[in-house]
Write a structure and sequence with these properties.
By secondary structure, this protein is an all-alpha fold. The chain has a domain at 35-116. It has helices spanning 2-23, 37-62, 77-89, 97-100, 104-116. Helix 2 crosses helix 5.
């Protein structure tokens, strides 16, 4: 009886986890068509790392993936480039203390994510 109960519980948990995974919206990236497939794969890998870092370090203030606190502002390319330059040389006028805890490689990943993600 315990085995059957455990099996049913396992199935219910598996279905719940699977539905949660499939219901999350996959991020699409806007990569120019002239980029070779091997470079496209590298860019997507960097953007995916950047997405994770954005969720970890940036979304508390800037949000990610849903409304309110959890939405990414539609930064302009100029805003992204300006932030990237100032963050890397340490002249961030907005004093983003979180960015100071990140390596320049991590910042590059986040910038890649922000620049390449498709905006609806």
């Amino acid at each position: 009886m315990k085995t059957r109960s455990f099996a049913i519980s396992t199935i219910i948990l598996s279905v719940a986890l699977l539905s949660k995974c499939t219901s999350q919206k996959k991020t699409e990236y806007d990569i120019p068509s002239h980029v070779p497939p091997e470079n496209r794969a590298i860019l997507i890998e960097r953007a995916e790392k950047g997405k994770v870092l954005y969720k970890t370090y940036c979304s508390g203030c800037h949000g990610i993936f849903t409304k309110g606190k959890d939405s990414i502002p539609n930064f302009t390319k100029t805003q992204i480039d300006n932030y990237h330059a100032t963050a890397l040389i340490g002249l961030d006028q907005n004093n983003h203390a979180v960015a100071k805890k990140m390596s320049s490689e991590q910042i590059d990943y986040v910038i890649t994510f922000l620049r390449l993600r498709k905006i609806d």
